[in-house]
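Dear H.,

Thanks for agreeing to be a second pair of eyes. The structure we're designing against is below in token form, covering all 425 positions.
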């Protein structure tokens, strides 16, 4: 795995490299660092590519070699104020979009953009406004669970369920890009395996549909497009956090060359992954992941539902039956599994299909098991038994258009949860 640390401060970069080594436990090759003047020169190459592409979109071919190319994970410190460049001081937010669009860097992380936030109570994605794929603080990199995705590896039990496993993030992004690049004019829904049935689409919120494509509609309408017909090129032209100028996106999209299709695929893959995390999996309406499905239907655990410790296997197990009872999983759940794990990070299942299964509903309503009083804590990726005491998990209301927006955190000491107003709802 190739990791690149980018900073204008050599001492600060050493701290980041040390944090990565601690979190990854010495696995694989150490990160490379791109610092000060070398970082400035590398960004100059990226900006030159961007200018060339925007000036000559139909003939653009990238010949210059960039240190960002083919890197699995790029980490930018957000404060680049001391980079030796003329003009306004830079932040990572001002360069990340161009690095994504005009190099083959895969997954991009912004560091220390919001040092006073450890856990996002609004959308359960971290910093939704960042142009990076994920915004973290340097200290988070020391947590082995961030790299492995396994809650058992967590430092101080802190392991947000919304964290991607960084050791796999680059490979997943490559798979996402490979899904889009061959045909940017293909339907998004058809390519990613989404339903077009109106009854199923009703489980996708209006916000989610508008976030994917602002001109999407559910019924034919002049000047708009049916949500199931929206293409990757449509998504690119409409909006993206990587390239904010619409006219520039239109010019790039109109070129229809292999080089521009690469740009579209990289940019849209990043936006689609965030869309999945915030608008599809986050609300747990159309797709529901294993621990939230267990909360909703404990009967899927069979006899294991009586043992609090067994509930945690739904968050930890990465292979079927994902902590559920094997026979019940094969009979009711396996057929409802969403097939494209590259977009969801965790196994996810079609809730409309499960909800409509009459035999499963009968099994659920006839169940008389005495289940423990457990709740899934989003900040530790695990279930905690409620005792009625002072240390019980705390509920909050995430900012989703969803019937399942009320969630729980263990509220682990030493970590900062914001905005606090979500606890008061």
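And this is the sequence the design step returned. I haven't edited it by hand at all.
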């Amino acid at each position: 795995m190739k990791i690149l640390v980018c900073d204008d401060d050599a001492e600060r970069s050493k701290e980041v490299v040390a944090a990565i080594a601690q979190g990854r436990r010495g696995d694989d090759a150490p990160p490379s660092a791109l610092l000060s003047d070398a970082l400035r020169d590398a960004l100059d190459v990226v900006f030159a590519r961007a200018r060339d592409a925007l000036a000559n979109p139909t003939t653009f071919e990238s010949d210059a070699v960039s240190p960002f190319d083919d890197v699995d994970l790029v980490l930018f410190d957000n404060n680049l104020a001391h980079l030796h460049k003329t003009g306004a001081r830079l932040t990572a937010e001002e360069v990340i979009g161009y690095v994504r669009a005009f190099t083959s860097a895969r997954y991009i992380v912004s560091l220390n953009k919001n040092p006073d936030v450890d856990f996002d109570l609004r959308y359960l994605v971290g910093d939704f406004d960042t142009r990076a794929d994920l915004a973290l603080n340097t200290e988070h990199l020391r947590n082995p669970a961030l790299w492995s995705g396994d809650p058992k590896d967590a430092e101080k039990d802190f392991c947000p369920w919304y964290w991607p496993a960084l050791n796999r993030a680059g490979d997943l992004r490559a798979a996402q890009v490979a899904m889009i690049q061959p045909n940017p004019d293909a339907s998004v829904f058809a390519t990613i395996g989404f339903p077009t049935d109106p009854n199923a689409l009703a489980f996708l919120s209006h916000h989610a549909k508008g976030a994917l494509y602002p001109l999407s509609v559910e019924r034919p309408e002049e000047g708009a497009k049916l949500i199931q017909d929206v293409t990757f090129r449509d998504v690119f032209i409409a909006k993206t956090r990587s390239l904010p100028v619409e006219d520039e996106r239109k010019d790039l999209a109109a070129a229809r060359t292999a080089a521009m299709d690469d740009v579209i695929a990289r940019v849209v893959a990043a936006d689609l992954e965030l869309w999945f995390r915030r608008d599809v999996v986050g609300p747990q309406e159309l797709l529901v992941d294993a621990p939230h499905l267990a909360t909703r239907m404990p009967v899927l655990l069979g006899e294991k539902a009586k043992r609090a410790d067994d509930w945690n296997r739904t968050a930890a197990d990465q292979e079927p039956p994902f902590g559920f009872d094997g026979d019940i999983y094969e009979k009711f759940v396996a057929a409802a599994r969403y097939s494209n794990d590259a977009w969801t990070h965790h196994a996810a299942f079609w809730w409309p299909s499960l909800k409509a299964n009459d035999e499963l509903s009968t099994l659920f309503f006839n169940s008389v098991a005495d289940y423990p009083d457990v709740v899934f804590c989003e900040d530790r990726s695990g279930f905690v038994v409620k005792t009625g005491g002072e240390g019980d998990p705390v509920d909050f209301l995430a900012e989703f258009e969803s019937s399942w927006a009320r969630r729980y955190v263990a509220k682990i000491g030493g970590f900062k949860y914001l905005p606090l107003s979500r606890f008061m709802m």
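Two observations from my side: The chain has three domains: 3-173, 182-281, 287-424. The longest strand covers residues 3-7.

Warmly,
E.
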